[in-house]
Structure prediction request, 130 residues.
Amino acid sequence: MKYILACFITFLGFTIDIEAQSVSFNESYEVSQLMSKYVNNNNSTTTIKGWRIQIISTNDRRAMESARGKFRSLYPGMETSWSHMAPYYQVRVGAYENKTKLMAFLTQIKRDFPLATPVVDEIEKTEFVR
Prediction:
């Protein structure tokens, strides 16, 4: 019992000693201004370069809609987006920070969409948080 009490008092002493220490940083005005610019620039930019998987690119709108419907039925809950860059309709899925992270899903998708390919895209930052 005395041993436990001695350990408790010793631990309490270390805790009080650690809490008494404080650290302060003094940064120059230039560094502070640069950090403010960096934060403001980051807050004003809503998109970043990332990777998506393009499951189809075709000039036939019905084929695009069919592929999009097939993907939605096979992978419910996963967002799809399509775009028309004349004369092609493109369907893209996913939002990945780097190509390595999408490769596992790409190999899975290729069974149903053999022409699926990774593409670089401007992606909203909020899509990465989901």
